[in-house]
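Budget justification note: compute hours in this period were largely spent on complex prediction jobs such as the one shown. Inputs:
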Amino acid sequence: MHNKTIARISAGLASKEFSSEEVTRAYLDRIRQLDSKLNSFITVTEDSAIESARVADARIASGNAGPMTGVPMAHKDIFCTQGVRTSCGSKMLDNFISPYDATVVTKFKESGAVMLGKTNMDEFAMGSSSETSFYGPVKNPWALDAVPGGSSGGSAAAVAARITPAATGTDTGGSIRQPASLCGITGLKPTYGRVSRYGMIAFASSLDQAGPMTRTAEDAAILLGVMAGFDERDSTSADAEVPDYSASLNDDVSGLRIGLPKEYFAEGLDAAVADTIHAAIKEYEKMGATVTEVSLPNSHLAVPAYYVVAPAECSSNLSRFDGVRFGYRAEDPQDLEDLYKRSRGEGFGPEVQRRIMIGTYALSAGYYDAYYIKAQKVRRLISDDFRKVFEDVDLIMAPVSPTVAFNIGERTDDPVTMYLSDIDTIAVNLAGLPGISIPAGFAEGRPIGLQIIGNYFAEARILNVAHKYQQATDWHERSPDGF
Amino acid sequence: MALAREDVEKIAHLARLAVSDEDIPAYARDLSSILDLVEQMNAVDTDTVEPQAHPFELPQRLREDNVTETDQRELFQSVAPSVDGCHYLVPKVIE
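Corresponding output:
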């Protein structure tokens, strides 16, 4: 049961081969048996999952089912879920039972999908290894001493271990693509604004974007079709039509123009990762694609600019956590300032506090122009680099991560070393472009992802090109031993 | 940019974060190394570049001035640490 894709589960439900309750129970059993090895879930919603599965079975019987009706899935614990704890991986929200649903959650509920639970993550999505969670680190199912990547590491590990067929994630600087790469699954970060941010706990609002984490591009197309669309509750939601992402999956890729940005293949890229990416690109050449080298000359400025923009926005967004209206409150506050300071000092972990302080500093009087305005100018240079390249090529291909999954604890001593884990993903967020990671090989038994970056709203083309690769290769079908 | 103890104390105060004395040296070291990373931006001349705040530079969307939200005070206050009627309770601020 657990080796089925969403497309296959959906077909089996439609043909009455099995019921949603049976599939749901099978996955709940796997979570119960296996998640103690991974720590990929923060909350498992067993009772409500069975209840939703029964409702879905009735809907299927009445002939009113969509592709997600009765299909189990999980949500990253950054999405507000009414009546269910929404912790964002933080002590600050350990006691927070959301009074409302995120738009993404509402859309999946309406589709009839069954929520199995909420997945573990770096605290407030700030991290590249899922080690900063209040609930402890997530393990990579391919190597239990390795990180799954982050911040959507719980979602990635759970999908890779087949304890959920799919999960949602969010990507502010690589938090869908990098864990997808490190766990050997498919993870799509859509165009900024494509999926509503309403009810998705804010980290950096000009960068945050939700997307699907699945085993195949075909499944990602199904999930994106549910998630995407205009939402008046998100002030930067894109008012653009949602195409049928599944309809174009098999389109021909001959004549596709692929650009390889030379900066992404420079020093620092692990040789085994480079070989894997080049081998994947050869597959596309066999299918009739043409490959040219391109340049994104300001790539080296992406991480520095990001670590102004993202912390600045985070320091502003996280000012809402004040111990007054929701979340953690310190004991016996002496006065209002003490209440604020100790609630925040005790409720946030060290990485979150570092980023709040960097952002506060960058936005403070006398430093605003030198840091924040400068970073916004660099952001434009980075966006313009992509704009120019997309005049000549259809898609960009690159590594997702310069290395395979690193070991737990290996990069926690120095924040800058950890930040550089996202060197190949961050520019895409600054520009607001869509990108996917798909499994393309292994080194030392640890997965390697291929990144495919498209122009604005080119998700259908990205999914099509990813699907064609998955038709020609079987990397996405590999599963880790013991799961 | 190397931050001193006093810089970290000032930033922590602005951010309303209680940082313990023994944690300040580590924060000073980490924040300084993050700022060193960030300052690599200065290698490029951006004098003639317009700042970009957002991927799509569209004007903020406006809507009709109609009531679209219902009163859910009790629901929203149900997750607050301390309330009294329609008030959120905090330590006394006016003597």
